[in-house]
Amino acid sequence: MPSDELGGAGAAPALDIGGQVLTYAGFDRAVDRWIDRYEPGPAGYDASTLPLAEALVCVCAAARRGAPVAVEDPAARPVRTEWPDSAFLLVATSGSTGRPRPLARTAASWYDSFPAFTAVTGVTATDRVLLTGPLHATMHLFGALHTLWRGACVTDDPQRATVVHAVPAVLREVVRTAPELRTAIVAGIAPDPGALAAARHLRVVEYYGSSEVSLVAARRVPEPLRLLDEVDAEIRDGLLYVRSPYTVLGAPEWFCVGDLAVLGDDRALEVRGRGEAVINVGGTTVVAEDVERVIGGIDGVVAAAVIGSAHVVFGETVTAAVQLDGVEVDDVRRRARALLSREAIPRRWVRVGELPTTPAGKVARGRLKDLLA
User: 16-46: per-residue pLDDT in tens?
Assistant: First the structure.
């Protein structure tokens, strides 16, 4: 019979990693062997440096044993001095605007949301779910644990994948090498027109959340984002506050996610971008993500990111960094002028070979500012 953390059993494939398949029966035995072989240390288990398959065995062993487990970026570990007794996952924020911050969450704060996530994504036990990033990026760890809970197969082989978890920039590339895909699950940032065009033959599911509050809202494109039934939200001074059973340990009842947002009818949610990514151009608010989505939809733009640059008259102006393929900056600038408001048009354009990103695929705005200084 399936265990609490594993939804499959017997000869059904649980992992297909590096060409090696591990069945649910084998995975279940591997979890029990891990528990027998390894005693958790003072901080529990640590899966941060383990290969993907072994890391998932370690995490599921921690869940079964009721011990905490760290899944952090070995190259940028947060400073962690303590953790609550009820902690299961010791993870961190993405670090898109600074150094990652330590977080701790219970098993229930994720596992209790899996039925709702299944309903919107449509993932079944017969799916092969492709992960496109490291487990210390929480969207990928969440996707992997949901896959195992559902009884589906976690894979790193795009050729056989039927479902993929990816940020929009990665999705553009994955669809070219994944002929069996039927569903794309997008998170991290909202999908841009280019990513949606690349995935136009797929069912695209977008969900919105953060490392601190997990799932907040979801949709099947082109429907609007809607809050999950168990989640409440308020807008205070333009910023989104969330009350949810899925938050990390120690979070206030109403958690400020840090995003600018608008609540509409029937619990519809429009997310406009990070509060830190707001650029004040002569008193006009320009949201970085809005500009990035427009520029990212121009043919030949592989990726785009914008930041605010100090200006003696306007306070700030917009600077754009663009990664291009087969098009010149002047062409992109000309097309952008026809699509953006006057205040949102970048005054400075910088062509880059590659944008600095976090392990989750988000723009690392702090590093980008240093790069463009």
Answer: 999 999 999 999 999 999 999 999 988 899 9
**297-318: pLDDT as tens digits:** 999 999 999 999 988 878 889 9
Distance CA 156, CA 154 (A): 7
CA proximity to 150, closest of 256, 51, 4: 4
**Residue range 60-67: mean pLDDT, rounded:** 94
CA-to-CA distance for 301 and 207, rounded, in angstroms? Answer: 24
Nearest C-alpha neighbor of 106 from the set 121, 87, 119, 124: 87
- Residue 344's region, left for phi above 0, alpha for psi from -120 to 50, else beta, is alpha
In this prediction, what percent of the chain has a pLDDT beyond 70? 97
**C-alpha separations of 287 from 135, 152, 278 in Å:** 29, 38, 5
pLDDT tens by residue, 181-239 = 999 999 987 888 888 999 999 999 999 998 899 999 999 999 999 999 999 999 998 88
C-alpha R_g of the chain: 21
Count H helices, E strands: the chain?
Answer: 10, 22
Contact predicate 323/352, CB 8 Å = yes
Entry pTM: 0.80
| Residue entry with tokens 């320009």 | 286
CA distance 90 to 24: 25
* Residue 302 DSSP SS3: strand
Rounded to the nearest 5 percent, the helix, strand and coil shares of the chain are: 25, 30, 45
Q: What is the layout of strands, in order, in the sheet containing 183-186?
A: 20-23, 13-17, 153-155, 128-131, 163-166, 183-186, 203-210, 214-220, 226-227
SS (H, E, C) 14-32: EEEECCEEEEHHHHHHHHH
Structure tokens at 343: 């205040």
